[in-house]
Design brief:
- This protein is mainly α.
- Helices cover 71% and strands 1% of the residues.
- It is built from 18 helices and 2 strands.
- The longest helix has 45 residues, at 2-46.
């Protein structure tokens, strides 16, 4: 009896010892995130605009900027609820939105929806704090945090873009455009293709490009579909990498500010060019000149090209869709191809941005997986290699653009080889991390009866 009691106490102590570092880690992450949001709020206020916290708080009452995003956040929160609770939550959200729509219609205000979804997310937080205890409270709060982080990540990105436009008056587009000659100026070629595709192709690609967070939420919902039954989250899922990419990517914008070909070189197709700030009206019909110099730009257009985060996010969606059903895999592939086509075809990015975006995404994804499984030698090597290649790309775009443009048959294959090497290293290393299937037992040899 005494031995049994001691073993139970030992197990509890071991369990508590395992949980304590994780609790400290989550608390530290929460404090850092809050401090980061407060810092962005203060910075945005310095420029006379509301920050991510104020923007999110306003949408409790005022018209939301993106209703689908709020409902995607609510869907992520609902992964911890039972089906009965989900139907109730959806009904409450739709009912609240109906009331808001009627009020806005009566006041002749802009019609928008999404307030109901935000109210449901906040209501789940209140229920978790007042009506739940222990593991169930923690699980529901994780669901609320997941939904709010998806929305807050989008708001944070908007504030980051504002900061880049206000603090980086000079942009490096001429450097990237010159280096892009090594790849054959893919943005110019894709722009002509999209222009020739007519309204249908343009509208389809615009929908894919603008609804990338919704696509991420759908893939995440597929990954988290068993949370309500198993009462726990999987060790690694899409939302984690998606948010970290959005957090770290804008820091590169500050180091390497680029506005994109449609803004730096005008627009001959869609009427959204840079106006008098553009160097010339060249995109998408005339390749840009070889003239790598910094150029001044306005204080409105975000410097959000290097790396292409849309490419990074679409790459992450593609990676996480590989273990899904056939329909999920097809959808992930379509979203990746369509996003790459849109980023180039609308003139939002250069080809060099896309290569950097893929390397950036694979490096972050590898780091998130390593953080979950442990930093062994293979993980350190993979993440370090991705970081070195990404840094090398930025350095070459900045300091070797003329050499790249003058020797495209050398530097073009080198860029593709660098990208391929990171993809190969990621696939080979993460394949080794996958749990090996248990080998089937071989039937034991049975003794044969002796012949008489």
């Amino acid at each position: 009896m005494t031995t049994r009691v001691l073993s139970r106490i030992t197990r509890r102590i071991d369990f508590a010892a395992l949980r304590q570092p994780r609790a400290i880690l989550w608390a530290t992450a929460g404090v850092v995130t809050l401090g980061f949001l407060v810092g962005l709020e203060i910075t945005a206020r310095h420029y006379g605009l509301p920050g991510p916290i104020a923007n999110q708080a306003q949408e409790v009452i005022f018209a939301p900027k993106s209703g689908p995003l709020l409902y995607a956040g609510m869907a992520l929160t609902m992964v911890v609820l039972t089906w009965r609770q989900r139907f109730i939550a959806i009904g409450v959200a739709v009912g609240i939105d109906a009331v808001f729509l009627l009020l806005r219609w009566a006041l002749d205000a802009r019609l928008a929806f999404g307030n109901g979804a935000l109210w449901v997310i906040l209501g789940c937080a209140v229920i978790a704090l007042t009506r739940r205890t222990g593991h169930e409270r923690a699980l529901l709060l994780k669901g609320v945090g997941l939904g709010l982080l998806l929305v807050a990540g989008h708001k944070t990105g908007d504030t980051w873009l504002l900061i880049t436009s206000k603090t980086r008056p000079m942009v490096l587009d001429q450097y990237v455009a010159t280096a892009d000659h090594a790849l054959g100026n893919p943005s110019w070629l894709a722009g002509q293709v999209v222009e020739a595709s007519g309204p249908f192709g343009s509208h389809l690609l615009h929908f894919v490009y603008s609804q990338l967070p919704l696509a991420a939420a759908l893939v995440a919902l597929y990954q988290l579909r068993k949370v309500a039954v198993e009462r726990r989250f999987p060790e690694h899922h899409l939302v984690r990498t998606f948010l970290v990419i959005g957090l770290l990517g804008p820091a590169i914008y500050m180091i390497f500010p680029v506005v994109g070909p449609v803004f730096a070189y005008g627009d001959g197709a869609f009427g959204t060019g840079g106006g008098h700030w553009a160097l010339a009206q060249l995109w998408p019909n005339t390749p840009p000149p070889l003239n790598p110099l910094p150029m001044a730009y306005d204080e409105i257009t975000p410097r959000n090209c290097m790396p292409s985060l849309h490419t990074a996010w679409a790459t992450t969606i593609f990676i996480h869709s590989r273990k899904g059903s056939r329909g999920v895999r097809y959808a992930g592939t379509f979203w990746l191809v369509a996003t790459l086509s849109a980023t180039l075809g609308f003139g939002y990015h250069y080809g060099a941005d896309l290569i950097a975006g893929v390397v950036f995404a694979l490096t972050i994804e590898a780091a998130m997986r390593a953080f979950n499984r442990g930093w062994d030698r293979s993980a350190i090597q993979l993440v370090a290699y991705g970081a070195v290649v990404f840094s090398g790309l930025l350095v070459s775009y900045r300091y070797l653009p003329m050499e790249m443009a003058e020797h495209p048959w050398v530097f073009g294959p080198l860029l593709l080889l660098a990208l391929s090497s990171v993809v190969y290293s990621y696939v080979r290393t993460t394949k080794m991390w996958e749990p090996q299937a248990a080998t089937a037992r071989q039937p034991e040899l049975q003794p044969q009866p002796e012949m008489a």
